[in-house]
Inverse folding.
């Protein structure tokens, strides 16, 4: 037998914890404020700790209350998904995905029509910023290694190539004179080491400093800058397939560097068994 308080008390607490108001919780649950207060008191009595700090004009969660609310939200989400999977398999379900910005724009978005055609019952929510209010089903992130506490799988390593516009190809042959025109990508506040790695592979590390030039917060910004002739960039070639095919960007050297950065798929263990997650992962790896 599980030692649990009533499900009603837990549900009432979750609603009150989100709104930090017994009055608003009562309206959402269609009960009286007194009923909400009684359920919360019963739950606090069962746990032996206070869940709210009651101030003059507002309430705040205690540390215990915040911890319980966080875990309850995840648990109720899982319960809802489990019920929907069985009771209404054809009902549209929302799949929340966190995707790094450039991957979302240049890799994932062009293929989404195929996913929607195959799984019309799934409604995608694709975001590139972490929110405390969203529990993501899948995460596609840019990084170096697997993530602790997640099922992590490397989707692919980046393949870095040096590119510029056709008009700058001649200048690229004297790249040692173009240090100020190197375009860099920032990651977690620091420049990625892709230029240093490429220059080392090309045998140019002694002649050219990878520490000069302009920096941008995303790869997409670098791609747009290099397309306008702002300078030279080392970019994952999979992200500029169309530009290379059309000739708006050209690879001015045959040197290519694999990794060490790549795109990783992360899934919380409790999300792995959900059918909507399985559908997305199967499509992502097979498309």
């Amino acid at each position: 037998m599980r030692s649990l308080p009533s499900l009603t008390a837990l549900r009432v607490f979750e609603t009150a914890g989100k709104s930090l108001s017994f009055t608003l919780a009562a309206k959402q649950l269609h009960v009286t404020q007194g009923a909400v207060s009684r359920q919360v008191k019963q739950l606090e009595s069962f746990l032996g700790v206070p869940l709210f700090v009651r101030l003059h004009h507002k309430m705040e969660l205690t540390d215990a209350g915040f911890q319980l609310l966080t875990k309850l939200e995840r648990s109720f989400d899982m319960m809802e998904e489990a019920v929907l999977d069985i009771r209404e398999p054809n009902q549209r379900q929302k799949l929340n995905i966190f995707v790094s910005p450039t991957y979302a724009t240049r890799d994932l978005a062009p293929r989404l029509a195929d996913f929607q055609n195959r799984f019309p019952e799934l409604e995608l929510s694709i975001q590139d910023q972490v929110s405390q209010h969203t529990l993501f089903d899948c995460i596609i992130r840019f990084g170096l290694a697997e993530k602790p506490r997640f099922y992590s799988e490397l989707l692919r390593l980046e393949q870095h190539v040096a590119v510029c516009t056709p008009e700058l190809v001649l200048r690229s042959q004297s790249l040692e004179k173009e240090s100020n025109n190197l375009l860099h990508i920032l990651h977690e506040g620091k420049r990625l080491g892709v230029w240093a790695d490429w220059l080392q592979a090309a045998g140019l590390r002694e002649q050219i400093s990878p520490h000069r030039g302009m920096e941008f917060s995303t790869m997409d910004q670098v791609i747009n800058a290099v397309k306008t002739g702002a300078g030279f960039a080392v970019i994952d070639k999979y992200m500029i397939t169309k530009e290379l095919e059309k000739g708006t960007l050209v690879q001015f050297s045959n040197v290519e560097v694999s990794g060490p950065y790549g795109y990783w798929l992360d899934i919380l263990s409790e999300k792995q068994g959900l059918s909507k997650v399985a559908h997305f992962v199967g499509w992502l790896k097979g498309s």
User: Anything to note?
Assistant: Residues 63-87 form the longest helix (25 residues). The longest strand covers residues 250-268.
